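If you are new to this repository, start here. Below is one unmodified record pulled from the training split, so you can see the exact layout before writing a loader.
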Amino acid sequence: MGSRFNKDRFLRKRHSYWSNLSEYIKKHRIWLVKNKLKYGAHYTESNHVCVKECGSIVTPSVIKYNTQKMQEKLGIEFNFHSLPHIHATMLMENGAKVKDIQARLGHSRSAITIDTYSHLTQKMQNESVDIFEQAMRDLK
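And here is the target side for that same chain:
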């Protein structure tokens, strides 16, 4: 999980994520530099985003534990793998363009985004019914 995420590749992408992301990344980089100075020769150099204070990679078991704690706090069930699915579905549900969602998730084809990562929600179904009903009223 965390060990497969390459921050340089992520940072090179030219997509908008959310307005606070660049500020968060700047703060994270400062945190990394401070920790590198603090730990000196004992700092583990890596090219990962999810690292401990000493630079060592955060293991999948730690991510799983933290995810469980977030679930308890938020009162919703999810797993780390479901996050891109949730992301794609929320964007699609709220009118984002498929090509933008495809680019944000790094998919080579929009079919992957639509068929695998986005899921039909009740809100989407209700909107389709509303659109059809309005179209029928417009025929009169």
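Two things worth knowing about this chain: The mean pLDDT is 87. Residues 78-140 form one domain.
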